[in-house]
Amino acid sequence: MLQKNTLAIWTVDQRLSGSATLYQQHLSSSELAHAKRFRFEKDRATFIIGRGILRHLLGYYTNKHPSEFQFEYEELGKPFLEDFEAPYFNISHSGNVIIMGFCWEQAIGVDVEKIKSNFDVTPLAEQNFSQMEIEALNKLNDFDRDRGFYRCWTRKESFIKAKGLGLSFPLDEFAVSLDDDLSSEVLQTKWDIKEKEEWQLISYIPADGYLAAVSVRDTSMEIEYQNWTSFKG
Q1: Which domains does the chain have, with CATH numbers?
Q2: pTM
Q3: pLDDT tens-digit profile of 71-84?
Q4: How far apart are CA 208 and CA 123, in angstroms?
């Protein structure tokens, strides 16, 4: 079970999770309709599997059936539950990896990205990173620059998702570290110079070729890592 003051991080390898047909039985009619709007079959399967596992884990943490949950959606499309007996949660996927985070006390944000090295990261960094982050990225050698970009991207994405503001939040108003895969922290919050001290920023490698990050506004939170490998029934 999910304990108080604990953040549970689940990693899903979609290739090992089973067919999408195993999960769709618990989805709502609106979720199934949403899945059909995806152009490619892989994207449809990812949505169904991700939402199905999310429902199973919420059921696991609340002793409810996976089909019972009725999701509400924020303006930017982030799902949530208007249920005081359900934990906060967030979900992200890239390539074959899906990650999910659950916590009772605080809203959280998660992000995972498959690392690509077939493009120049500089223009995207200049558009989305703070000056402090751009300078740190430019200090890395060519070999490390791609990883540094994804370290920064996943951490910033998880942070704004935890804040609940999406990409409308000014990305140059805060800064995160990017010089190490596993060691991470919020370095700067311009709107409140002390707020950076309130955040725990977790980075980890969910699979070879991927980087992931989780943000929560509570530095005392204990982290629990779990892997979902097959359909639980």
Answers
A1: 6-106+221-228 (3.90.470.20), 111-216 (3.90.470.20)
A2: 0.93
A3: 888 776 778 887 76
A4: 26
